[in-house]
């Protein structure tokens, strides 16, 4: 692949990546720190949604809408294929987003990003408590010195 063609697949901060193959539809928004060290490119297994006018659309809002029940309905309705389902860029581009002001989009995106952070923190705390309970139980069984934990 030529360097010029490779640049067409290079990711930028704010790009929304959507898995285009399979029934599990995963999404992410590329953050500046994701591409800080080195350039990243996406493969044919993903669709890239690049916002051309960042003053009109907030990438995290686009992701939030696509993950919503309505967005998921559209994405699933557009999937083609029986063995391996595929989404086309054309179909995804035809999905209409709610017409909200940029500030309203940002508010929605920040609300959901905050909820995700709280969820992640709660999961990490629960995992720590879970591991501690098991470690404590191993001490009660008298087997805690018989193994070493590998992280």
TrEMBL record:
It comes from the Bacteria. Coiled coil: none annotated. Keywords: DNA-binding, Restriction system. The keyword DNA-binding applies. This is Type I restriction modification DNA specificity domain-containing protein.
């Amino acid at each position: 692949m030529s360097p010029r063609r490779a640049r067409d697949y290079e990711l930028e901060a704010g790009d929304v990546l959507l898995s285009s193959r399979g029934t599990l539809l995963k999404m992410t928004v590329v953050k500046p720190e994701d591409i800080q060290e080195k350039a990243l490119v996406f493969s044919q297994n993903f669709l890239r949604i690049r916002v051309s006018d960042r003053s009109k659309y907030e990438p995290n809002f686009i992701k939030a809408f696509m993950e919503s029940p309505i967005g998921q309905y559209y994405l699933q309705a557009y999937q083609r294929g029986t063995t391996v389902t595929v989404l086309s860029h054309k179909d995804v581009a035809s999905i209409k987003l709610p017409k909200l002001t940029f500030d309203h989009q940002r508010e929605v995106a920040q609300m959901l990003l905050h909820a995700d952070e709280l969820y992640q923190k709660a999961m990490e705390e629960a995992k720590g408590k879970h591991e501690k309970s098991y470690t404590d139980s191993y001490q009660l069984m008298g087997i805690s010195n018989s193994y070493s934990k590998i992280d």
